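chain below, 706 aa
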Amino acid sequence: MSKNARGNAYPSITLEDKKFVIDGAATTVYSGAVHYWRLDRDKWEDIINKVKSLGFNTISIYMPWEAHEIERGQFDFGQVDPRTDLDAFLTLIDKAGLKTIARPGPQINSEMTWFGYPRRILDDPDLQALNAQGGKAVLTQVPRPIPAVSYAADKFFEETALWFDAIMPILVKHQYPKGGLVATQVDNEMAYFFHINPYACDFHPASIARFQTFLEEKYGSTEAISKAYGQTVSSFAALDAPRRFEGKTQRDLPRHVDWIEYREKYLVDCLTRLGDMMKERGLNETPLFHNYPHPLGPGGAASGITAPYNLTELEKHLDFVGFDIYSRKELYSHVRTVVSYVVGTSRFPYIPEFIAGVWPWYLNPGDQNDEGFVTKAALMHGIKGFSRYMLVERDKWMGSPIRRDGRIRKENAVVFETTNAVATKYDFKDFHRHADILLMANRDYDRLEAASELLSFPGDFLESQISMSEYPNAMTVSEKTFGFDEPIQLSKTNWFNGFAEVLNEKGYTYLLSDTALGEERMAGYKAILLSSFEFLAPEVQSKLLAYVEQGGTVVLGPKLPHLDTVFTACDLLKSRVLASASTPLGKDGADLATSYAVGKGRVVLVSDLAKVSEALDASMQAIGVAPVVKNDPRIDVAIHRNSDKPDQLLVYVANPTSEPVQVVAGVGQTVKSITEIWSGETPGNSGETWSDSFAPYTIKTYAVSL
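prediction:
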């Protein structure tokens, strides 16, 4: 019996080494979404069997408060509308031998008019989130705009308790091992109802009070916060949240950055409270998880890859956290970023919503070819489980592989059926993505970027009102330097992307995470890459030192920090590094970087972004880390290893371009045999490398024997 995130014992289910383990055996979680209340009840059993026939072993189910509540405190579970008989639906899934993942909200979205809430919840002014001007924060999404809900208000949890009191006994009845329920999602896509912009939401009085409590817990005294803010603070209760970015000097920054940090805590605290409510009602024998909406763009949203999401902190309270993925083949770099981040950060790399079909108002939907390519891309970069949303078509959803009457749409189903069959045949669950290097996003700088956002606008992330694309760049961030040598909130992205571009071009195997990651996870990598400017949180400086002292290599650029996050002196890392022996990095007098021997490891400082490529090669060569072999920088290669079978690899090779490519690839070891698992074909193999032809937007997976 092992422990979950909060120390509670799960008798049957554990998350170990990125695996979902039931009764001591690693199992797959290949799931699809089915919405019982939207389907004719006499079709349920046939549809469940059709799901199973496509090779899925799990069904993911939204359970909408909105569909079940008759009036406050009264619920219909089949007594009025037979389609709402949740217990009967779960019983049919159990009978079919499938697992279940429950998603009872309270918010579910699911393209429902009221996002899964009874309308009375949205109409209650006490429960409405407020914008910076004190008006209602409005979610501008089809089918109609709705008020965002404030999860800071205690009254919201009191109302949610009525829903949980009604539904949890049904879920507990089907909880494994009594039934097939193996995991439950806590709420859905917690992101301030897509108000990612930090000054758009939530300024509800209860949220302001929680912000004041957060500040008191962080600083401890009015004297300390007065020093940090550079102004006299008479009491924490007198402090308001910043309503827009008004920073002019360095001393103005802590007030705004505190609001960004609080927004992360807001999400973590609310999800923890909802999870505890589920546990208190008996749902305590299976894992709890959450799905954040994906960070936007190849390097994250305008607010950075980490803000306002803190996966590491949330997994101290829930068991695993994933990002949803809805993408087209042209967005390969986005998929690689999101998946690599989840794999590098979460206990169990899971996609809670993985596109299958499309909602009718999606601006640029893909087709089954996009779904096939993105599926292989997610597997390539290390995803271990997923839920296809939507597997079964229904109102406000098109192009699913199973129609709502149970017929299979063959042209759409083949991608999913083939994926499940191949993943099962080759035991994808037993392989893990090999990575020597961890590229870390710097949460301190992402917070600064979010804090210095200049434009606050309402809306959701699909169609912003200023006509940005679904994947925007940072267009509205302040360019002030605030007394630093350069605008860190912008320059940090250049360094993050610079590191990533070199790693991708050269073929180094790496994963992503951020500076919240724990020391024990950092220790699993031979090298860590991190952007570093004048300031860095003391705890991050300490973690980096501990990692290096034990033998790791840290590549930093462009500076060694000498300040903490409120810009007072803190040179834990710098003083230790500069007191160590140093050597220039580079051949023939080339001044690429400086390498410092610190404890058993080393710190490599690269001051010039233009020299990152050569400096990285030199520093990785010094510790015996070699890139994969590839003949074209446009292609991407990922290696998956099975610790029980070290001579067996799965090697993914991607051509994410619109041009055909003749690929030569290798893994730095002699290849005895090689087979492309999706086609069964054998490429030309020289022993050290193999060659193959790739059409545009193609990913191949090779079973390799060494």
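Residues 253-280 form the longest helix (28 residues). Residues 297-302, 459-474 have pLDDT under 50 and may be disordered.
thats it, cya
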